[in-house]
Amino acid sequence: MAVSAPTPSCVVYTPPALADAIVKALKAKKEETWLEPSCGGGVFLEALRRIGVAAGTITALDLDTTPTRADEIVAVKRGTDFLAWSIANAACRFDRIVGNPPYVRLVELPNALRMAALSVQQPNGRPVGLMANCWYAFLCAALKLLRPGGSLGVVLPAAWEYADYAAPLRAGVVRNFARVRVLRCSRPLFPRVEDGSVVLIATGWKGGPAQSLRSEHETLEDLVRNIDRACPVARLPGPVTLPGVRTTTLGRVATVRIGAVTGDADFFLLTESDRTEKGIPVSACVPVVSRSKHLATAVIGRAEWLRLRRSGRRIWLFRPGKAQQKIESVRTLLSTYRRAKGQSLPYKLRTRSPWYRTPLPETPDAFMSMHAGAGLWLALRGMKRLTATNTLYVVRFHERTSRGLMAAWGLALLTTRAVGSWESLVRHYPSGLRKLEPSDLGRVRLPVPPATARAITTYRKAVSLLLRGRVARSRAVADAWFNRHGKQMTLVGGARKAGQRASET
Fold this sequence. Notes:
By secondary structure, this protein is an alpha/beta fold. It is 34% helix and 20% strand. The chain folds into 2 domains: 8-226, Rossmann fold (3-Layer(aba) Sandwich), CATH 3.40.50; 250-488, no CATH class. The strands form 5 sheets. An 8-stranded mixed β-sheet has the order 3-2-1-4-5-7-6-8, sandwiched between helices. The protein has a 5-stranded mixed β-sheet with strand order 10-18-15-16-13. A 4-stranded mixed β-sheet has the order 11-14-12-17. 40% of the residues are buried.
């Protein structure tokens, strides 16, 4: 079957120093077999030669038929599509796999290459989807060829850490390898890959679940220097022992979604002085919180919102109804904006009717934020009509829930058990942003508080500690509360069982 050579846009070349570091990190041993599925100019092959790996133990492939320096090192299988080759040679096994797979969307591939990619299975047993990227199919295919105990060292785009399509592979790597290291460079490694890259080093195939480590480095030199060391990384906390306490997922307890999408925050979000200067009545506005910094207490009520208003924060969402359109100041503001935008009205506004009515989420019970340094937590809503914009998440419990029980669920989110769960789901975006999408949040695992829980006082204390930077102490307070109530539930459950046995006797 004829295949096309890769387009220049999908080819990026690994710096020799990085290739050397990756190869050395995999701890080469004599007689082990190596695979380089997309060898290009041969930078990884040269690195293998420098550490004395015999050419006869290396299998190298490349789609391009043009010979390079790589052909002087090993007999490269030229004009070979690795994805199709991996399926035809499914019985092959290798001890080490290294490389820098091509970065190109599957929809942009020639038909023959695309069909081969769509035939590759992900770790969850499903075929690779059309919305994925070629590097993803390469890595899925490579893992099928890895011998138990084997290791992998690859350079990947930053999408490894956040792309939805890559979620099954991220989970599969952590589940199957004994140790996983992800190293991120703050600066792009390649001129044409602006969103950054990561280096994935995974050892001990089929020896998992992994001890997973992640580190960030300012420069390529720093990354190379630390690739084979005990990097200064934040280890994910393990689950705390909570005797007698069941766990569930956040998605089973509540619905989490983004706040109101204005379509143009500069126009629709107003400070109190903005509102008064423009002559906009309160009836044409909705009180909102629009920044994570606005969430400064466990319960955000009218007093907290008024403090934000006095401090000049954007706490009004301009959202006039039919009645307010009769007010001259409202008509003037709408018509001035519409004339200024003309045909360039923002997309979100063009697709809703009327354009000036921002759709609001269902009345929230709480607001959620990924606070810098503090992590994920809930601010309970204590003010009527208060809602949030899309820089925050809004949370609505599935069942009618007292504030005391909501506070208990807030504590559950602060426990070490929950932190370990959501930390493993965090997506690291190229800008350095750490984020959880609503679909991720639904999978966060929480301890279940007793239905009669009244935890508002403890929750206020835990949140206060959290926002003052005393994160470990805040988690200790949450863990202690669940340990105490867990023991109480265990005693109650035991007493009920004993009573049942006595009645049966």
